[in-house]
Write a structure and sequence with these properties.
alpha+beta; five-stranded antiparallel sheet; 20% helix; 29% strand; elongated
């Protein structure tokens, strides 16, 4: 009995990182839906941009787990077209119609934006754990482009927060205490 319980406990500890899996998505075309059911639009406001639900198209409602990071990579962009580095971090206070920004309710702090891959990839990360995107929150993603992307393909991930090491230590301590109590009861 004790061996079966210890084996089950080991399975739970080993499987726990899988509980924090990434939500991977991809798409192309002028508009559509990405995982986990979020709408996207190219050039919704008549300018060269990409957004969820579309730049100038209001707010989207998140229908997934808590998120603290988001990455998107565009592929197949026309020559010379990329993410506009001059529009990064315009802020949430300007609303859902300006600049390259990712904001989650209550919009008190925009997420930090970092460009890579010759301005074809961008990562947004919550600042100091603030304004995380949680199920039911309203949010928007704006990405200004330097030219017409013509509905180019893109892929990306929504990333869940990794548990703090202290939480894992606390979980492990409780699990070992439980095994110890059960073992003592079985020996008596």
């Amino acid at each position: 009995m004790l061996r079966k319980l210890a084996f089950l406990l080991c399975l739970v500890v080993v499987a726990s990182p899988a509980l924090f899996a990434d939500i991977i998505f991809s798409g192309s075309g002028s508009s559509g839906t990405i995982a986990p059911g979020q709408p996207f639009n190219y050039n919704f406001d008549g300018n060269f941009d990409w957004g969820v639900p579309g730049v100038g198209n209001g707010l989207a409602t998140w229908s997934g787990p808590t998120i603290d990071e988001f990455t998107i990579t565009f592929s197949g962009l026309p020559h010379g077209v990329g993410i506009d580095p001059g529009s990064l971090g315009s802020g949430c206070n300007g609303g859902f119609s300006g600049g390259t920004v990712f904001c989650a309710s209550p919009y008190s702090q925009p997420w930090v934006a970092t460009l890579s891959n010759n301005d074809t990839s961008i990562t947004f990360m919550a600042q100091n754990g603030g304004d995380l995107l949680t199920n039911g929150d309203q949010f928007f993603v704006n990405i200004d482009l330097t030219g017409n992307a013509n509905g180019a393909a893109f892929s990306g991930t929504w990333l869940e927060p990794v548990p703090e090491p202290g939480s894992m230590v606390l979980f492990g301590s409780g699990a070992f205490a439980l095994v110890g109590v059960l073992r003592r009861k079985m020996l008596l």
